[in-house]
Write a structure and sequence with these properties.
Layout lengths: L6 E5 L4 H12 L3 E6 L2 H13 L4 E5 L5 H15 L4 E4 L16 H29 L2 E7 L11 H19 L4 E8 L6 H6 L9 H8 L11 H12 L10 E4 L8
Parallel strand pairs: 1-2, 1-4, 2-3, 4-5, 5-6, 6-7
Length: 258
């Protein structure tokens, strides 16, 4: 297993991406600590992980609350001894569907401000402790900030996250801490993506939907949640020990790296 005895903290673990990553990390041997704003979805993921024989705990933590984030990180280190992995799947509260020239300022800046605040607070709290222990991996997920109409401040928010992660990689690298970003184009088996493309649960299998959603990619399909989570597990593992400051393309070629 890739993550045996690792302690992993996943923010947004009650959502589709965070939940998939938490399940995969647990399958690969990690002790997973699930954090988010709503307890019920966190408990559902934790119960599923424990039912499969792995270790999981869940805590309600608002990633935008500086004191709560710091207190939770300190408590986790005190109980577990360390934090080996941080994975952020935190929503940006973005507003989409309106042209930029018609969008209120607050609607545009909201995802940028939410992303900057939550990603900074969580990475700072965990990164500081990883630097002290001399090891660790900081991971987050964005979408390629390619210009697409009516996305509002979503692309700017993704750009802010990626800029922050580059800075973390440079500053924390000398302390043995790696920082990488996964870029996703959206997974068709995520409920939000299914809804966005007008497909209801049960209308098609995840594999059929992946082919339809990603028909214009080089692989003629889109990446499923489990595939994104598998890449996250690899990046979090010692197998990726030479990787930092990387933007990892997990899009089946929907985005072409240049």
């Amino acid at each position: 297993m890739l993550l045996t005895d690792k302690v992993a903290l996943i923010y947004g673990a009650g959502g589709s991406v965070g939940g998939a990553v938490a399940r995969t990390f647990a399958r690969e041997g990690a002790r997973v600590c699930l954090a988010g704003r709503a307890q019920a979805p966190l408990d559902a993921v934790a119960d599923e992980i424990r039912a499969n024989g792995a270790t999981a705990e869940a805590a309600t933590v608002d990633a935008a609350d500086e004191q709560a984030v710091e207190a939770h990180a300190a408590d986790l280190v005190e109980r577990a001894g360390r934090i080996d992995i941080l994975f952020n799947a935190i929503g940006m509260q973005d507003v989409q569907g309106t042209p930029l020239t018609e969008m209120p300022l607050e609607s545009f800046t909201q995802p940028v401000e939410v992303a900057a605040r939550t990603q900074f607070l969580t990475a700072r709290a965990v990164g500081r402790r990883m630097a002290e222990q001399g090891s660790g991996v900081l991971l987050t997920i964005t979408a390629e900030p390619t210009p697409v109409e009516n996305l509002g401040g979503f692309g700017a928010g993704c750009g802010a996250i990626e800029g922050l992660w580059r800075g973390l990689a440079v500053e924390l690298g000398p302390y043995g801490v790696r920082a990488n970003v996964i870029r996703s184009a959206g997974s068709p088996d995520a409920p939000g993506v299914r809804a966005a493309i007008g497909v209801h649960a049960g209308d098609a299998s995840p594999e059929q939907l992946a082919r339809e959603f990603g028909r214009d990619t080089p692989l003629r399909r889109a990446a499923l949640l489990a595939e994104v989570a598998d890449v996250a597990a690899m990046l979090a593992s010692d197998r990726a020990s030479a990787m930092t400051a990387a933007l990892v393309n997990v899009t089946c070629g929907a985005y072409i790296d240049v």
